[in-house]
Design goal:
heterodimer; A: 345 residues; mainly alpha; rod-shaped; B: 470 residues; alpha/beta; 42% helix
Chain lengths: 345, 470
């Protein structure tokens, strides 16, 4: 596989190789960035999901607080007319109206709690994955909400006791229970404070979570970019060194050491180079052919030269012998033919 | 009977050292650590720590001891609370009640106590402040462990303390007039309520002075409720209400009210102004140029005490409705006035119905405790039992300065004889009218829908029973 990839790569031209490297780099960088961005997006969605829960809850607590406040005002009005309710039609009407308002406020508080619980449960249903932020806090929130409901129930029971005293005409005994009413109201507002504190914690946690993930993601992106750049440099270096510069060196060396008169010997690396399909392969093949051609021509020239020299020497010998013979005895002629041929170049 | 009583007192005396009056008990109190260890004290401590013992059969007798020891002090005395304002704007009228209380304590202790048990009064200053009233009653009930508390002058103070008295199962004697319309199970009231106070007064005024009435009151529950009653009776007797005004407690800016009075031209004024405000009312009445001949005031509260405070000329010619006047010419009253004024507590120099009703409260208390001692012995002395034994309790004309009176066995207000009188130049009241017989208290006379006040609560027409109706 690797070999095939290698051979495929080797078969590309240098331009294509550079292109390939650039493409690989761009793709890998985009992938890393995409992963980071998608990670940020996921966190964003989750944080938004959280915000979709805690923002309405914040407003619910504010509404509940307001209703408690209004409830208290209605109770004050009841206390103001309370001792006359059983004697006085007008006081009774005031009382009944204030009581209806009080009960509306109380129902309102319960509705707020219920809808808050529903909201949390719905959000939990919407995304099933257990590791979400919401899952970590939902139990606590639901607990706190049920505490609020419970505190409101107790508070309302005590207020109802006041109502009963007012309606029975034992108003002053009802007034003695106002301490308890105030205490249970304090418990109720205390529970709401706890709920708000929990919401603040969640808000903080989700913001921190977002910030942390964002930091990790951006760090990841930066790191990935650096790694990609390094990788590209290394790859480029290896490619250039392995596939361009070393073969070029080899070719230069071969050219330098080339002698047309010598036999053409192809080393293994030269053979490998020549098998390549890229420009360097072409260069090396051409050069090899050139080498062979030059070598052949050189040998032919050498042969021709030797032939010429031999002819020249024969001519000289003949001339010398001829002149000597001419001058000496023909007996010597026989010696001339017995002598070995002089050493050629 | 006398022998039985003496026997009871001996029994009590045997239980612990019979102490003297407050002076002596004080020294004993301060050395609580050196208090002799008695069987009772040991039992009390033991039972206090282990209340479950009381529920066990074998501890049944011990429970009575524990109860008894709660209400009779280790010194063998009975503690009572005296809760009146000795300072502030109500002290003018409340302090003399305290004086009557101490006067009675001194008299009764001189005679050997109630059934042989000396009375130990615990005096608390309520400072004309309803919060102090509440603190005071809690201190008396919880810290002092008093058998009963006597106190209060305004309905506001009664309404401040009664819930606490009820919650703690104590007993409160309210010794002055009030509006009725309440049904507590831990109270005994010795003063007149609306149907005994203004019921005769309003028709009397209409008949003798004319139909046009102007109501002026202090701004709190009693005057408003009194005026509600008075309005009804004014209508019933053919009168006409031409104006109604209220003054905050303790304040005295009556000029605008009198300006309106001048405009409305009433025949008479019905006043339920109390305390310091009453003094301002009288002074500004004269300043405004009114005279009792053309515009008399009929009051439920401007009594001999107030008139003496501001000067007889401010009272002369005005009308007062009350069950008692200092001037009542009967041997019991003459004796009472003499004894009281001669005592160290008689510095007020005068008696009035509020003081006399207070005195009656102590007489009722004494009678009830003596009755318990006779029938059940010291064991039976509890706040609840004192009230039980007070049901229907009578004081004869020989005991009560205002004439025969009786505690209603159902609603624990008093049966009494309403009287109407006019102040003379000596600051005393000349009797103008007296009911022929005792009038029963009817706290819900204006509200028949509210049913009947009985011993155990207000029985509504629906059959429902409301405890501590207020």
């Amino acid at each position: 596989m690797l070999r095939r990839l290698k051979s495929f790569f080797n078969n590309l031209s240098v331009g294509q190789k550079v292109m390939t490297v650039i493409i690989v780099e761009v793709i890998s960088y985009s992938m890393v960035t995409t992963i980071a961005i998608s990670q940020i997006h996921i966190v964003g969605v989750e944080v938004k999901q959280m915000a979709d829960v805690y923002l309405p809850l914040f407003s619910a607590t504010a509404t509940i607080r307001q209703k408690i406040q209004e409830g208290r005002l209605n109770l004050m009005e009841i206390i103001f007319v309370g001792d006359r309710v059983v004697y006085d039609k007008e006081a009774e009407e005031t009382y009944l109206a204030a009581r209806v308002r009080y009960e509306d406020e109380n129902t309102g508080i319960n509705e707020q709690v219920s809808s808050a619980e529903q909201l949390i449960k719905n959000s939990l249903l919407q995304d099933g994955s257990e590791d979400r932020l919401l899952h970590r806090y939902s139990d606590g929130l639901l607990d706190k909400l049920s505490e609020v409901r419970q505190a409101n129930r107790i508070h309302y029971k005590r207020v109802e006791k006041v109502f009963r005293h007012v309606e029975d005409g034992s108003f002053l005994m009802g007034m003695e229970t106002l301490g308890e009413v105030a205490a249970s109201e304090a418990v109720l507002t205390g529970e709401i404070d706890l709920l708000v504190a929990e919401l603040e914690t969640i808000k903080k946690a989700s913001v921190e979570y977002a910030v942390r993930v964002e930091q990790i993601a951006s760090g990841f992106t930066i790191l990935a970019s650096i790694i990609t750049v390094c990788l590209v440099i290394i790859v480029v270096f290896i490619i250039v060194r392995r596939n361009i510069s070393r073969p070029l060196h080899m070719l230069t060396d071969t050219i330098k050491s080339f002698s047309a008169l010598e036999e053409v010997i192809e080393t293994e690396s030269e053979k490998n180079l020549m098998r390549r399909h890229d420009e360097l392969g072409m260069v090396s093949r051409s050069f090899n052919k050139l080498k062979h051609d030059l070598s052949a021509q050189g040998r032919a020239l050498q042969d021709a030269k030797e032939e010429a020299e031999r002819a020249n020497s024969a001519k000289s010998q003949f001339l010398a012998a001829a002149s000597h013979d001419l001058r000496h005895a023909p007996a010597r002629h026989a010696d001339v033919y017995r002598r070995p041929a002089p050493e050629g170049a | 009977m006398e022998r039985r009583l003496r026997k009871a007192s001996r029994t009590v005396a045997a239980l612990g050292p019979a102490g003297g009056v407050a002076a002596r008990s004080k020294s004993t109190q301060s050395s609580a650590f050196t208090r002799p260890v008695t069987r009772r004290a040991v039992l009390k401590t033991a039972l206090a720590g282990t209340p479950f013992l009381a529920g066990m059969g074998s501890a049944r007798a011990a429970r009575h001891v524990a109860q008894r020891s709660s209400w009779i002090t280790p010194r063998g005395t009975i503690k009572i609370g005296l809760l009146w304002s000795l300072t502030g704007h109500l002290s003018v009228i409340e302090k003399p009640s305290r004086d009557v209380g101490l006067f009675w304590v001194e008299e009764v202790n001189k005679a050997g106590g109630v059934g042989g048990l000396p009375i130990e009064p615990v005096v608390i200053d309520a400072q004309s402040d309803m919060k102090s009233y509440r603190q005071g009653i809690l201190h008396l009930i919880r810290k002092e462990n008093v058998l009963a508390t006597f106190g209060g002058y305004t309905s506001a103070s009664r309404r401040a303390v009664m819930p606490l008295v009820t919650l703690n199962g104590s007993l409160f004697y309210y010794p002055t007039c009030y509006e009725g319309r309440e049904c507590w199970q831990h109270i005994i009231c010795t003063g007149p309520i609306a149907n005994q106070h203004s019921f005769d007064l309003i028709p009397y005024m209409v008949k003798n002075y004319g139909p046009r009435a102007y109501f002026i009151g202090s701004n709190y529950v009693w005057p408003r409720e009194s005026n509600r009653n008075a309005r009804r009776w004014l209508e019933d007797s053919g009168g006409e209400l031409v104006g109604e005004a209220y003054m905050p407690l303790g304040q005295g800016h009556f000029d605008p009210i009198f300006a309106d009075v001048k405009k409305q031209q009433p025949d008479w004024i019905f006043s339920t102004v109390i305390g310091d405000s009453d003094l301002y009312l009288r002074k500004q009445y004269i300043k405004a140029g009114f005279t009792p001949d053309e515009l008399p005031t009929a009051s439920l509260t401007t009594s001999e005490m107030e008139v003496k405070m501001m000067g007889v000329e401010y009272g002369e010619g005005h009308i007062l409705s009350a069950p008692y006047f200092q001037s009542l010419d009967n041997p019991t009253n003459v004796d009472f006035v003499d004894r009281f004024l001669a005592s160290q507590f008689g510095e007020s120099g005068v008696t009035h119905y509020n003081m006399e009703d207070t005195y009656l409260a102590f007489l009722y208390f004494q009678k009830a405790v003596e009755k318990i001692l006779l029938e059940e012995g010291a064991v039976g002395i509890t706040p609840a039992n004192v009230r039980n034994y007070s049901a229907g309790l009578k004081l004869s004309a020989a005991e009560s300065p205002e004439g025969g009176v009786q505690i209603d066995p159902q609603n624990f207000n008093s049966w009494l004889t309403p009287k109407i009188g006019r102040f003379n130049g000596q600051g005393q009241v000349d009797l103008l009218f007296e009911q022929k017989h005792k009038i029963p208290p009817r706290p819900y006379i204006l509200y028949p829908d509210r049913g009947q006040c009985r011993t155990d609560g207000l029985h509504l027409p629906s059959g429902k029973r409301v405890k501590a109706a207020s």
